[in-house]
From TrEMBL, chain A:
PROSITE patterns: ETF_BETA. This is Electron transfer flavoprotein subunit beta. Heterodimer composed of ETFA and ETFB. Identified in a complex that contains ETFA, ETFB and ETFRF1. Interacts with ACADM. It is found in: Mitochondrion matrix. One of its GO terms (biological process) is amino acid catabolic process. GO terms for molecular function: electron transfer activity. It holds the Pfam family ETF. The lineage of its organism: Eukaryota, Metazoa, Chordata, Craniata, Vertebrata. Residues 8-89 form the Electron transfer flavoprotein alpha/beta-subunit N-terminal domain. Coiled coil: none annotated.
UniProtKB/TrEMBL annotation, chain B:
It comes from Atrichornis clamosus. Its EC number is 1.3.8.5. It is an enzyme of class 1 (oxidoreductase). Residues 41-152 form the Acyl-CoA dehydrogenase/oxidase N-terminal domain. Its cofactor is FAD. The gene is Acad8. This is Isobutyryl-CoA dehydrogenase, mitochondrial. Isobutyryl-CoA dehydrogenase which catalyzes the conversion of 2-methylpropanoyl-CoA to (2E)-2-methylpropenoyl-CoA in the valine catabolic pathway. To a lesser extent, also able to catalyze the oxidation of (2S)-2-methylbutanoyl-CoA. One of its GO terms (cellular component) is mitochondrion.
Length: 132, 414
């Protein structure tokens, strides 16, 4: 997920453009011969995929334990050059940005619930609003 | 959560890393009045973050075991040295991190939340490397500093003797010049790391009585005539061995003398300025950790149908602890700034900071223990170890009585 718009699309877009398999939210990666076994963190739990190489992987925070930064490196970080490359120099066609934010709004406020008399009434209500 | 002994023990074991985690969380969102990162630069916040992370993961889970089994955690310290903690204010050309005294104070304060005793030893080690870096010639710096900064070798500082503690200038260990060497005779007491460390920075008498007759020699373990007393049994600081260091006709090359003959006492005093800030910083870390432990306990423990945190007396006590902690921290950081800026009043400020912080922080840790009730007295709980470990900070690096002498002299002889 990009730190600016949080869109979670770069890895996926890249895989599609390259026509390579993708293993996103990887929490465990095992290289095999010509392939990679990727354990993914998905909403329902863990999913394991076996992808032929080359492939695109994106990392979940559970993939590894970050190293400690060393004191000298922390001091060097400030002095590292920040190179700005215009998109045109990289051969990116067309006008950027391609996404325009039209509107940002809060989700609707959570309305209060409703108490029903008995189970039969509950079932009827649920049926009525299409939940079952 | 129940409040019986088994749950309490589970809380205690889990509390240590959680305390350190809360030190991190506190900085990310909730503005705490005792947040140790306030007023720091971006770089300093980064140093602090690394040190707190390291303390939480590599020290906190083991501090009880190191204390109980009297383990000198060499592997952990070498890991710390890889991050640059072996020579924090030593120049980079010999492997140090080249940071300021304030940066150093922040780092030791953070590491101390994981284990005050081991951090205190690391600060002594750092002081020794700094002495060689600052007063040694090029050859000595290159010979000793790199392996000390990486903690491939460890250092000990030898000033105190059985007959001279506060009256350090009256030391008796003699170094008689004989050709290209000194012949060292005498003994040192209470040496942190003694027997387990490799490099000994020794203050000894090459000249007449008093401070002007004292020089500084560097000895290595294995020198014939160098031996050690028994390992002392201490109330705290158990993760570092303490032994007497004995010199019997030790031959030390003149090339191992730091600075000029007669400069030793000055070297010692300058080393102690930084050493006092570092020890005070260790007390700060222990006190902060103890305040968080007390805070946790007050919210969890119930009596008379309510959490202890609802009790106004305890609320007021906690507020006092926090206030004193902040005051102590500001004094220490103020002294660190004065020292790194080379101000004239730096030495006396270091003494004031050491006096105030070590006294106040011991009081804070002790209060925190009291708030834990009976559980505070059990070794399953970290708070008693902080109390035991920092008690000695009021005694070494110059007793708090000597600190008062220094401050009084500044006030009455000016």
């Amino acid at each position: 997920q990009a730190i600016d718009d949080d869109c979670n699309q770069t890895g996926q877009l890249l895989a599609a453009m390259l026509d390579w398999p993708q293993g996103t939210f990887a929490s465990r990666v095992q290289l095999e011969d010509g392939a990679v076994r990727v354990e993914r963190e998905v909403d329902g739990g863990l999913e394991t995929l076996r992808l032929r190489l080359p492939a695109v992987l994106t990392a979940d925070l559970r993939l590894n334990e970050p190293r400690y930064a060393t004191l000298p490196n922390i001091m060097k970080a400030k002095k590292k050059p920040l190179e700005v490359i215009p998109a045109a120099d990289l051969g990116v066609p067309g006008e950027l940005p391609r996404l325009r934010v039209l509107q940002v709004q809060e989700p609707p406020a959570r309305a209060g619930g409703e108490k029903v008399e008995n189970v039969a009434a509950l079932v009827e209500k649920l049926r009525h609003c299409g939940r079952i | 959560t129940g409040s019986g002994p088994r749950t309490a023990m589970a809380v205690a074991w889990r509390a240590a890393p959680r305390v350190a985690a809360r030190l991190l969380l506190g900085r990310r969102g909730i503005a705490s009045c005792i947040d140790p990162s306030t007023g720091l630069t971006e770089d300093q916040k980064e140093f602090q973050k690394v040190a707190l992370d390291f303390a939480a993961k590599e020290m906190s889970p083991y501090m009880a075991e190191w204390d109980e089994k009297e383990i000198f955690p060499v592997e952990m310290m070498r890991k710390a040295a890889q991050l640059g903690f072996g020579g924090i204010y030593v120049k980079p050309d010999v492997g140090g991190s080249g940071l300021s005294r304030l940066d150093t104070s922040i780092i030791f304060e953070a590491l101390s939340t994981g284990c005050a005793s081991t951090t205190a030893y690391m600060s002594i080690h750092n002081m020794c490397v700094w002495m060689i870096d600052t007063f040694g010639n090029e050859e000595q710096r290159r010979r000793f500093c790199p392996s000390l900064c990486s903690m491939e070798r460890f250092a000990s500082y030898c000033l105190t003797e059985p007959g001279s503690g506060s009256d350090a200038a009256s030391l008796l260990t003699s170094a008689q010049r004989k050709g290209d060497s000194y012949i060292l005779n005498g003994s040192k007491a209470f040496i942190s790391g003694g027997g387990d460390t490799d490099v000994y920075v020794v203050m000894c008498r090459t000249g007449g009585p008093g401070p002007k007759g004292i020089s500084c020699l560097v000895l290595e373990k294995g020198t014939p005539g160098l031996s050690f007393g028994k390992k002392e049994k201490k109330v705290g600081w158990n993760s570092q061995p303490t032994r007497a260091v004995i010199f019997e006709d030790c031959v030390v090359p003149v090339g191992n003398r730091l600075g000029a003959e007669g400069q030793g006492f000055s070297i010692a005093m300058q080393g102690l300025n930084g050493g006092r800030i570092n020890i005070a910083s260790c007390s700060l870390g222990a006190a902060h950790a103890s305040v968080l432990l007390a805070q946790e306990h007050l919210t969890v423990r119930k009596q008379f149908g309510e959490p202890l945190a609802n009790n106004q007396y305890l609320q007021f006590r906690l507020a006092e602890m926090a206030t004193r902690l902040l005051a102590a921290r500001l004094m220490v950081r103020n002294a660190a700034r004065a020292l790194q800026d080379g101000r004239e009043d730096a030495a006396v400020l270091c003494s004031m900071a050491k006096l105030f912080a070590t006294d106040e922080c011991f009081g804070i840790c002790n209060q925190a223990l009291q708030m834990h009730g009976g559980y505070g007295y059990l070794k399953d709980y970290a708070v008693q170890q902080f109390v035991r470990d920092i008690r000695v900070h009021q005694i070494l690096e110059g007793t708090n009585e000597v600190m008062r002498m220094i401050v009084a002299r500044n006030l009455l002889q000016g």
